[in-house]
Design a protein that fits this description.
370 residues; 12 helices; seven-stranded mixed sheet; 10 strands
Length: 370
């Protein structure tokens, strides 16, 4: 039948697109050889914006203060918290001279805007090099600052790191969160490697203060609640000013959401900011997502009707071989190889949920950063 012939040739095109992504674009990061950067003796301002994070700060601030790095300060921003966040950070400040506190009060124009709070923290930072993480984040080694700062050069004003999520055994949600985080990281790290950097995550990101002020801070997207990390990087990153830091000593780890409802709300905020990426980035990201959907829909359809099934099976096999090979080497770098055992299932589940989130965002927009 003509319809199946059209679907078959469409499937061949989709396989070609998938091979470009998994084989060439993602393969660029998979084949990337980690290079040990020369340690720098530069002053670093670590910036954490916290809203109702008293418990997490009490656990994670000591891990930052214990970093094996000579010259750094910790700028702690209390974004109008209603819990004991301010009391906790004031307690640490009394014991450590290298802590600064910014206590953000409500401002009608910037109510609930994390970017406003971060801007105040950046302005009081002593040093010219800024390292960002979240209140629920902890560095996985005492070399975190050293590793991230070592990638700054005269040309590289942005350092993109990896922020993992803590593993929880026996949790489908945790498995999905970690898989989505890995796939997102694979994309932004791979795009950076091919000279098309488009985002980073604020859980582990560094840039020069001058880069921030040259771009007029977050003013181009201050009215958008999310995007203090990805929209800013999308705005200022170029093929020459970005460096990747993916040594395991540079990783941070965050506490994942524990309910599907809270995680979906978080992803809704993240996806809403992607609508403001540069057109070329939106096109490439959308093409990958659409090709993922069509791969599964067309593969299943053609196999069910047994149309040219020998060729279809061969194409599916080639796609999976390339996918598994490059995802394995990429996941090995990011210490996430365990995710590959559940790859097809997680891939289908994630595609389905992302479609649901996209539709949900068309109906209503998330209003607050937290």
């Amino acid at each position: 039948m003509l319809i199946f012939e059209i679907l078959f040739y469409t499937f061949i095109v989709i396989i070609g697109i998938q091979l470009i992504y998994y084989g060439i674009i993602f393969g660029k990061f998979a084949a990337y050889k980690l290079k040990k950067a020369t340690p720098k003796n530069i002053g670093i301002s670590i910036i954490i914006c916290a809203k109702n994070e008293a418990s997490n700060l009490a656990q994670n601030i000591p891990l930052i203060l214990e970093q094996n790095y000579k010259t750094f300060e910790l700028v702690l921003i209390n974004d109008n918290s209603s819990d004991e966040t301010l009391e906790v950070i004031e307690g640490f400040k009394k014991q450590h001279h290298n802590i600064k506190i910014v206590d953000v009060k409500p401002v009608e124009k910037f109510w609930g805007n994390k970017k406003y709070a971060l801007t105040l923290g950046i302005k009081v930072a002593t040093y010219d090099f800024l390292l960002f993480t979240d209140a629920d984040c902890k560095p996985l080694s005492k070399q975190w600052i050293s590793e991230m700062s070592s990638h700054f050069t005269n040309q590289k004003s942005i350092v993109i790191g990896y922020g993992a999520y803590k593993k929880v055994k026996g949790s489908l949600l945790n498995l999905l969160i970690r898989f989505e985080t890995f796939m997102t990281a694979l994309q932004y790290l791979s795009y950076a490697k091919i000279g098309l950097p488009y985002m980073a995550v604020g859980r582990n990101l560094a840039y020069k203060k001058a880069q921030f002020f040259e771009a007029n801070g977050f003013m181009n997207h201050m009215d958008i609640m999310s995007g203090d990390d990805d929209l800013f990087i999308n705005q200022v990153a170029t093929k020459t000013n970005v460096s990747l830091c993916v040594s395991k000593e540079s990783f941070t780890e965050s506490i994942p959401k524990t309910t599907f409802k809270s995680w979906i709300l978080q992803k809704r905020r993240h996806i809403s900011s992607a609508n403001h990426y540069k057109p070329k980035h939106k096109f490439l990201l959308a093409l990958f997502y659409v090709s993922q959907i069509l791969f599964w829909v067309l593969a299943i359809t053609l196999l069910v009707v047994l149309y040219q099934w020998e060729i279809v099976v061969a194409l599916i096999a080639v796609r999976f071989i390339i996918q598994y090979t490059n995802l394995y080497f990429a996941s090995k770098k990011l210490n996430e190889t365990g995710l590959l055992f559940f790859l097809p299932f997680l891939e289908i589940l994630l595609i389905t949920l992302q479609f649901f989130i996209f539709i949900k965002n068309l109906i209503s927009k998330p209003q607050y950063w937290k």
